[in-house]
Amino acid sequence: MSSGDQLYEQAAAVLSANDRQTWTAPARGPYPHQWLWDSCFIAIGLAKINPSRAVIELLSLTRGQWSNGMLPGMIYDTAVIHRWEAGIWGDQVESPPGVTTSALTQPPLLAVAVSLVAETLTAVARRQFLDTIWPCLLAYHGWLYRERDPDGSGLVSLVHPWESGWEDTPYWNQAMSKVSPIHTSMGLIYWLRGFDAGERASGDEVGHMRSQLKLLEQVDFDSRRMLKQSAVQVQDLPFNALLIASNRALAEMGEQYGYGVPINLTTNFAAAEAALDELWDPASQQYYSRDRLTGQLIKRPTSATFVPLYAGVAPLRRARLLKNLLTRPGTYWAHYPVPSVPVSDAQYDERRYWRGPTWVNLNWLIIRGLEAYGWTTEAEHLRTTTTQMIARSGFREYYSALTGDGLGAHDFSWTAALYLDLAGNQ
Ligand code: GLC
């Protein structure tokens, strides 16, 4: 058996160990609940080994959908929820009966995952799957544009860093500096979860997040009131780029398999493609997120700038500039790329969460983006270094871009799932 085969089997074993029958926990111990974008990445990998289980993973997300269409970032496993957790992650306001969820969303990758899983199914199974999940997809995209882009600008706004999936990234830290932090002692929480505090968001950062959560609670997590009252409103780059990728997946599936997309949504989709342009900064030749209230780009360099490559929305000239930025030695092209913050940046922190480490889900998006633009050499290099990093340190939550050391949770589901997808394509 080659070492590649062994790794493939180990990846499948990680997913079965984290399997909760109808959904998969991101990791045993620290992450016992279901998370929205985790389940999407997990389903993409599961489709390689067990397509019907991948279908179940995605359908299980629909049980948490609010009556207004929102898909929550988290659906709690009520058997293991700690009393302090519900308070930290938000009220349940409109969770469907019998399900408890967080009140914020997460990156909208569901339509992409649905289309990748659908391709692996028989025609009959695909029809059944799409018939069931289609209304959920339309309601979710409808909610995002109706509630989070009330002016029809084409860009949706996030009101909390947890929605972005990149909670302590430098651009969110800058956005959150408008909020006064609530003192939070994270030491005990990290200890309970078995984390090294130096690898997680700092106490101050979490203090800002809790404070913003309090404000959102006061307006009952009502998006319209949030957009009237919150000082923090970010047109988050990776979120909007992934939404475009999902819009495209939705439109293509509609065409290919005969499902309708309402006209108001297709209008939103067109506006989104054009509006992403506004997040490009010609001076530094990269994309950034934007503060909705000031209209200013938040110019903190992060690997988020490469996510538009995945969506295929960067025009070729710009995509070339991004590829050059990605592969410039000493910035993003570290020993184990792609660091979430360039290693040369003053904000770079080798071991801390989204402030420097390499994440496999981001690498997967960038690899697929490079391939779509035809840059197979760079994509192959990144696929090889990603595999080497996993072979060296196991299926970790994130890794040092300098040494490949594993960081955060062990036996992490999306790392295992995306390994299955990348290895299956050799
Ligand atoms: C962390 C990550 C987030 C992920 C969650 C569960 O909060 O920042 O992106 O979804 O863990 O894995």
Instruction: Order the strands across the largest sheet as they lie in space.
Output: 3-6-7
Strand fraction equals under 5%
Bound molecules: alpha-D-glucopyranose
Sequence of secondary-structure elements: HEHHEHHHHHHHHEHHEEEEHHHHEEH
User: Which parts are unreliable, with pLDDT below 50 for 5 consecutive residues or more?
Assistant: none
Number of strands: 9
Helix content: 40-55%
Tell me the number of helical segments per DSSP (H or I, 4 or more residues long): 18
End-to-end C-alpha gap: 17 Å
Keywords:
mainly alpha, three-stranded antiparallel sheet, 18 helices, 4% strand, globular, binds alpha-D-glucopyranose
Overview of this protein structure:
This protein is mainly α and 426 residues long. Helices cover 51% and strands 4% of the residues. It has helices at 3-17, 36-49, 51-62, 83-89, 110-118, 123-148, 161-164, 170-176, 186-193, 203-218, 223-229, 237-257, 263-275, 307-311, 316-326, 360-372, 376-393, 413-423, and strands at residues 34-35, 74-75, 234-235, 280-281, 286-287, 289-291, 297-298, 398-399, 406-407. Strands 3-6-7 form a three-stranded antiparallel sheet. The protein has a two-stranded antiparallel sheet with strand order 1-2. A hairpin with a 5-residue loop joins strand 6 (289-291) and strand 7. The radius of gyration is 20 Å and the shape is globular. The mean pLDDT is 93. The structure holds alpha-D-glucopyranose (GLC). Alpha-D-glucopyranose is lined by residues 26, 31, 35, 37-38, 165, 167. Alpha-D-glucopyranose binds next to helix 2.
